[in-house]
Each structure stands twice: as C-alpha cells, then as structure tokens.
Description:
Strands 1-2-3 form a three-stranded antiparallel β-sheet, with no helix packed on it. It is built from one helix and three strands, in the order βββα. It is mainly α.
Amino acid sequence: MALRSYQCSNCGANLKVDTFNMSAVCEYCGQQLTLDTEEVAEILAEREKTKRMKTAEEEQTKREEAKLKHDTELKKIESDASEFMEGARRVGQGLDTVKSGLNTVKTIATYALIGVILIFIIVVLIVLLKHFG
Length: 133
Ligand SMILES: [Zn+2]
C-alpha cells in the first residue's frame, strides 16, 4: 500500500508530518492538518520500512566494499607473487650467463694451456736440434 502523499490543500507544498502530535503542518503557508491514528500508523510503518531498506542497502554496500578490498588484496598478492617469480627467473638467467661465461673462460684457458705446451715442445725441439745439430 503506497503512502498517501501529504500535500498542503492550500498551496500544494509538501506537509511536514508530526506523528507525535498526530498533525501535519505546511512549512510554506502554515496550513494545519490533523491526522487520524490509521494515517499516523501508516506513516510510521512506511518510515520503518524505509529505514530497514536503507540499513539493508548500507549492509550490502559494506559487503561489496569488503569484497572489493579483499579482491584488491588478492590481486596485490598475485602481483607480488608474479613479481617474485619474475625475479627468480631473472636470477636463473643471470646464473646461466655466469655459467656460460665460466665455460668460455675454461675453453680459453684450455686453448692457452695447449698453446703454452706447444710452444714449450717447439722450444725443446729447437734446443735439441741446436744441441745435436
Ligand atoms: Zn501550504
């Protein structure tokens, strides 16, 4: 049942309803209207209903806000985790680079050693040839 709107019969402005005094008064022209018990009960019921709806809406908003906050935190955790994984991947790549560098150094050292041995053998051969030649 829709609440009858209380409008001033004199000027048409909305009436200010006073449920305590069971009356309504126009804030514009001061026209007064006496309400009966049923009308007052109806107004109070409507007010209670509006209040309950408002509370329910507020609770819904709070739940949505909490969910949003939770989702945001979850996203942050996910982002942190992926950042960590990215960091770990980079460390892995760095290690691979170091390993490959070490291998290159090893290879160069091996060739250098072979070179030194060859030079040594050549020097020994020259000395021997000069000695016995
Ligand atoms: Zn009025």
